[in-house]
Amino acid sequence: MRKHNRIGWGGGLIVLLLTAGACRPVPSAYLPLQPRAQALLNQAEQALQQQQFTQAVLLADSAATLQPDHPAILFFKGRVYAHMRLLNESDSLYRLVARRAPTYPGLWHNLANNAARRGQFRKAITLFRQELAQRPNALSWRGIGRAYLELGKPDSARLAFETALAYDSTYAEAWLDLAELYEDEGRYAEALQAARRAWKLAPQSLVARYRLGNLLRLTGKPAQARPLLEAVVQEAPWHQAAHYSLGRVLHQLGETEAARRMLERAEALRALQARVEQAELLVANTPRDPYAYATLGSLLRRLGQYQEALYAYQVAHFLEPGNLEFLNNMAILHLLMGREDQAIALLERAVRRDTTFVDGWINLGILHARQGNREAARHAWERALRLAPDRPEPRRYLAGLETDTP
Question: How far apart are CA 312 and CA 11, in angstroms?
Fold first, then answer.
C-alpha cells in the first residue's frame, strides 16, 4: 500500500467528501425541507464548517423533529460523523438515505470515501462508479484514481485522473495527483508540468507550492525552488518534507551551514511526525476513544498544526462532553491562533459547568489580563487561589496585578 502526504483519505479534512445535502436540491420524489428545517440545517452547516460537531448534530436533530428521516438531514449527519472519522455511524446514516433516496447526490461518493478511509479500495472504486453512473463528475473520478494508486495500479490511476480533468480542467488537486504519480515513476518533466498547472490554478495551496518546489529541486533548478519552499516552511513550520527539500536546495546552492540547520530541523520533525502517524493509527483503530483524539491533538499542537489539533480536541469533546480539560485545551489553541474571544468563551463555559475547575479560572484570568480587564482577571485568580491555595500561579499573577500600573 502506498504512503503519501497527510491529505486525502486520512487527516481531519475529508478532501473527497461531497456536500450535496447542504447545497443541492433533494430528488423530486421527496418533499423539500420546510423553511424552518432548512434554516436549522443551514446553521448546522455553519457549525460543521467551524468544526463545532456537537452543535452541528444538535441543530440537525432539531431539524429532524420537524421532518423526521428526511434524506437531506440524514445525509448531513452522515457527513458530520465522517468528518469525525466515526465511519460506522456515518455509513449507517448514509444507508438510511439509500433506502429513502438511492439517487441522492453525493450518497455513493461519500460511502466510497468512507470505504477508502478503511483501506477498502476495491469496494471504494465500485461505490465511486455507482455515483458516476448517476451523475458523472470530476471528484468521483479523482477518488477512483486515488484508490487505484493505493492498489498499486498507476496506469488505471492515471486514466482516472485524466478523466477527472476532462470533466474539469481547473481541478488543481487532480493535477497534483498526476504530478505525484509521475514523480513516483521518475518522470520528472511530466510531473513538473502537472505541478505547474496545479500551482497556477491554486497558488496559495501549500501542497501545490511544495510539490512544485520539490520538483524544481529534483530537476536541477534550486534557485527557482527556493522561494516556493521557503514560503511553505514559513507558513507551515511543521512541514517536514518541505524542510528536507529546502535543506537539499540550500546545499545545492552552496549554503552549507544553513542547509545543515534545515536538515536537522527536518529530522526533528520527522521523529515527531512518526509519533503523529502512530496516534492517527490509534484513532483509526479506536475511533470512539476520546483520549486517542486528545493524544493526537497534543502531538499536533507540538508540531504547530494548531487548526488540526483543534479538530482533534473538538472530536474528543464530542465523544466526552463533560471533560473540561478538552475545553481548556481548545481554548489554548484558539489563543495560539489569535482568537482570544473564542478562548474566553470556552473557558467561561468550562467554569460555569464546574466552578471548581482551577485551571479554567487561572487561564481565564490570563486572558482577561491580556485584554486589559484587570478586575475580571483579579476575580478569576482569586477564585483559583481559594480553590487551590497551594498553587503558585494565581498568587504570582495577583502579585503582578498589584505591581503593574493600570
Answer: 10
User: Distance between CA 158 and CA 142 in Å, rounded?
Assistant: 10
* Sequence-distant (≥ 6) Cβ neighbours of residue 7 within 8 angstroms: 13, 15, 207
Give the integer Cα–Cα distance in Å for 223 and 249.
8
Q: Would residue 295 count as lying in a domain?
A: yes
The span from the CA of 242 to the CA of 227, in Å, is 11
The rounded distance, in Å, linking the Cα atoms of 304 and 302 is 5
In sequence order, the 6+-apart residues with CB closer than 8 A to the CB of 243 are 233, 262, 263, 265, 266, 269
**AA identity, residue 106:** G
Q: 84 and 103 in contact (C-beta within 8 Å)?
A: no
- Asked if residues 45 and 90 have their Cβ atoms less than 8 Å apart, the reply is no
pLDDT (tens digit, 9 = 90+) per residue, 313-362? Answer: 999 999 999 999 999 999 999 999 999 999 999 999 999 999 999 999 99
CA distance 26 to 206: 35
Q: Give pLDDT tens digits for 113-167.
A: 999 999 999 999 999 999 999 999 999 999 999 999 999 999 999 999 999 999 9
Q: Could you tell me the residue range of the domain that residue 312 belongs to? A: 279-403
Domain count, the chain: 1
What's the CATH number where 336 sits?
1.25.40.10
265 grid coordinates: 530541523
Position 301 in a domain: yes
Whether the model clears a pTM of 0.85, i.e. scores above it, the answer is: yes
Backbone angle region of 273, left / alpha / beta, with phi > 0 → left and psi within -120 to 50 → alpha:
alpha
Helix/strand/coil for 49: helix
Residue 27 and residue 134 in contact, taking contact as beta carbons nearer than 8 Å: no
Comparing C-alpha atoms, which of 306, 365, 313 is closest to residue 338?
306
Looking up cell 502526504, which residue turns up? 5
What distance in Å separates the CA atoms of residue 329 and residue 347, rounded to the nearest whole number?
10
C-beta of residue 174 within 8 angstroms of C-beta of residue 144: no
Let me know if residue 137 belongs to a domain. no
- Tell me, yes or no, whether 359 lies in a domain: yes
